Amino acid sequence: xxxxxxxxxxxxxxxxxxxxxxxxxxxxxxxxxxxxxxxxxxxxxxxxxxxxxxxxxxxxxxxxxxxxxxxxxxxxxxxxxxxxxxxxxxxxxxxxxxxxxxxxxxxxxxxxxxxxxxxxxxxxxxxxxxxxxxxxxxxxxxxxxxxxxxxxxxxxxxxxxxxxxxxxxxxxxxxxxxxxxxxxxxxxxxxxxxxxxxxxxxxxxxxxxxxxxxxxxxxxxxxxxxxxxxxxxxxxxxxxxxxxxxxxxxxxxxxxxxxxxxxxxxxxxxxxxxxxxxxxxxxxxxxxxxxxxxxxxxxxxxxxxxxxxxxxxxxxxxxxxxxxxxxxxxxxxxxxxxxxxxxxxxxxxxxxxxxxxxxxxxxxxxxxxxxxxxxxxxxxx
Length: 381
What we know:
mainly alpha
């Protein structure tokens, strides 16, 4: 029976990956790992981020201003008394304004995508990640998705279904809320302006109320995009080093422990409802070191993971909990359902909860601070 082929990457993702690969990547000069940011790298990342955020804000302001002028230009077809305009005049107004607004929006989005890719590539250069290397192929495409704000693919990877415990209603609602955010913000802001200045809020005034909103919104989105890109740049390096620490004294896990660590990672993915690129790197790292999980094991079954802990020795339970900790922090966040999973695992292993240590590890990873071995081990003492 032929092996099923992975679906082709979306066109935008492929194009972004080729763009990122096209840069000139000199060998890394720093002796420290990619996920550890020294002062020079921190300054470089701050410079790249600050420049990209300012350019994104400026692009948003220019787009809003252009749209405002387009509204005023189109308003001439309504005459001096818009309330008495004919149906044809209204249709002409919205047709002309719509075309002008669409052109401005397309130009803004194209620029933001292009500049976002440039900034992501610059981040990689500063951190020392070789995006033109075949070893970093998956990271390259993950960074392209971050730059384009594309969701992580929901298809099964290594047998893990990130939506196993998620309802369709929750997934649909989350997507809808995100798409409505900026439209709702613009609407509320314009309503406030109109109520605050009453009749003084002429059409010319209201046409430009979106300028500060677009600028601030673009700046925030750009900052979050680059933060996520930085996390994806550092993830594979951090995963490898943290596993080195965890398995230094246990290089050959028993079948029971092997089942538990694969299930720990799958459970962390399921509790976030998203298969983060850093989780894929961690899955690949585990399989390269220890091979595939035992046959018949559902690695994304959180209940099975918690049950598997009871079959381990106390030392193995600590190891499984440390792998769960790494999986929980490697996407840069620690959501409520992940915290609950950690507490359930602590309870199942009779180990005192150490969520504050897990949170400290997460902050250290996101900040690019050195992650010390004792700090990783202390997450399950």
